[in-house]
Amino acid sequence: MAAMSAPDSIDLARLRRSCAKCSLQQLCLPAGVSARELEQLERIVQRNRHVGRGERLFWPGAPLTGVFVAREGAFKTTVLDESGEEQVLGFHLPGEVIGLDAMGTGVHRCEAVALGEAQVCEIPFDQLTTVAAQLPSLQQQLMRVIGQGVDRDQDHLGVLVRRQANERVALFLHGLGERLRTVGLSSSRFRLPMSREDIARYLGLALETVSRGFTRLQDDGVIEVTGRQVEVLDPERLTRMAHGAEEERNARRGRA
């Protein structure tokens, strides 16, 4: 492709600002992409749709019409189990893509619910695939985003197989911090967008068990919790606990 001219650079700067917290931002950054192609991608993105607290983006059985990126706010994806109890499958932070669960079948298997007031960008799926066929960098980024979704699913399974409740809570906080770091936010000081009840449903634990886990981490000096505000005081120890190294070390000391 031709080298980018001065007007192209202006367009690129504008797109960088508009997508500053978007997990798809790297699609606009490769040097070989022309201003026309960037504008083509920009045109299909439906920006700044307001989503109220508790409002759904989609629900089980709804057809795949587009994928969403939270510009502000956070979402949870949920399903109902056989007894009608809500199970939380995952949480989606600002800059993360929501709606990839329907890519295989064309219909959603879960629902996405806003945890608070939110702003999202919606990308119509049919237009996205058309543009992606013309922009190799877009196809590559889509594959990365899909891979990140698979990684998060695997991380969730890794949480659920942990025997110790404290490990599950530590792994959850550690993983949340790492995801916040990825989208340019602090991994050591953050506000939990989800309730303790949602965390319990995600971790497969009773609410009381989750509350005791937070209390123990605070009593041990690992975190400081005020309401939903969390400050990680000892990130190294939180990492050890998240990976089971703390319990293993304590067990070795007990045997000694």
TrEMBL record:
SMART domains: cNMP, HTH_CRP
Major localisation: cytoplasm
Keywords carried by this UniProt record: Activator, Allosteric enzyme, c-di-GMP, DNA-binding, Repressor, Transcription, Transcription regulation, Virulence
Cross-referenced SUPFAM superfamilies: cAMP-binding domain-like, Winged helix' DNA-binding domain
Location of the HTH crp-type domain: 163-236
Compartments, record wording: Cytoplasm
Positions of the Cyclic nucleotide-binding domain: 29-113
Domain of life the protein comes from: Bacteria
InterPro entries on file: cNMP-bd_dom, cNMP-bd_dom_sf, Env_Response_Regulators, HTH_CRP, RmlC-like_jellyroll, Tscrpt_reg_HTH_Crp-type_CS, WH-like_DNA-bd_sf, WH_DNA-bd_sf
SUBUNIT field: Homodimer.
Entry protein name: CRP-like protein Clp
